[in-house]
Amino acid sequence: MRIGFIGLGSQGGPMAQRIIDAGEEVTLWARRPATLEPFAASGAKVAGSPAEVGAASDIVCLCVVADDDVLEVAAGPDGVLEGLSEGGIIVVHSTVHPDTCRELAKRAARTGVRVVDAPVSGGGRGAESGTLLVMVGGADDDVAQCMPVLSTYGDPVVHLGDLGAGQTTKLLNNLLFTANMATVVDTLSLGASLGVEPLRLADVIAKGTARSFALESIAASGGTIERIAAHAGNLLRKDVGLVGDIAGPERTSGNATFTAAQATLDKIEVMSS
């Protein structure tokens, strides 16, 4: 297959490299020429626009930042849809609102193009090692056609349902992670008040039934969320907000996970003010 890739950041770059290393014909595009420099000797082609990526590809993967970026790159002027032929597929790896993927699918359907949503978890290291968790939504046939590409950087690759199901799952994952951070910080603080050194407490809990990725991340940051807040605070705020929008107040009001996630965001807000 001919594969296009747009969004060559710390996670998207290694994902594209995995596809190249698998021997696929790959075409790249980036707003900043410097982003393309690591691929100079890779054998990948470089396009002058997203539309050119579409014209050179059967499947185009998007790993850009936000909802507006997805719609602009895929369906905007000189976007992927202006070049991608009937039967092509756009794979949205960005973490966005499920409705963004559905809106893109409506526009794509006018030219016979399909859309699959496939947000990922695992970061740059997971992409480099081919162990990203890939959460997929889309029609069975479309997902099956994309599976050889997704499997170059994903293990496991999980098909969760119709278009949008991957995004919903990723957002719920990020909601729970955000909630876990609040409970971890408060538990370590309670332990300190009871005479247990926080990092030693974290080390012990990490070997017990209450272990979590949030605990490991906070322990690695010295027992606080300051570093995580600086690095990912805006993304967590975005994702929790998207869950709130999808679920609505009737589902989030009184929900323990959502309440704890909001407590984490409150802590982050205090740090940034």
Explain this structure to me?
It holds the Pfam family NAD_binding_11. Residues 2-161 form the 6-phosphogluconate dehydrogenase NADP-binding domain. Keywords: NAD, Oxidoreductase. Residues 164-247 form the 3-hydroxyisobutyrate dehydrogenase-like NAD-binding domain. This protein has 13 helices and nine strands. By secondary structure, it is an alpha/beta fold. It folds into two domains: 2-162, 3-Layer(aba) Sandwich (Rossmann fold), CATH 3.40.50; 168-272. The protein has a six-stranded parallel β-sheet with strand order 3-2-1-4-5-6, sandwiched between helices. The protein has a three-stranded mixed β-sheet with strand order 7-8-9. Helix 4 (67-75) runs parallel beside helix 5 (98-109) and helix 11 (226-247) crosses helix 13. It is globular and about 65 Å long.
Topology of helices and strands:
Layout: E1 2-6, H1 12-21, E2 25-29, H2 33-36, E3 45-46, H3 50-55, E4 59-62, H4 67-75, E5 89-92, H5 98-109, E6 114-117, E7 120-121, H6 123-129, E8 132-137, H7 140-153, E9 154-161, H8 165-193, H9 198-205, H10 213-220, H11 226-247, H12 249-252, H13 256-272
Parallel strand pairs: 1-2, 1-4, 2-3, 4-5, 5-6, 8-9
Antiparallel strand pairs: 7-8
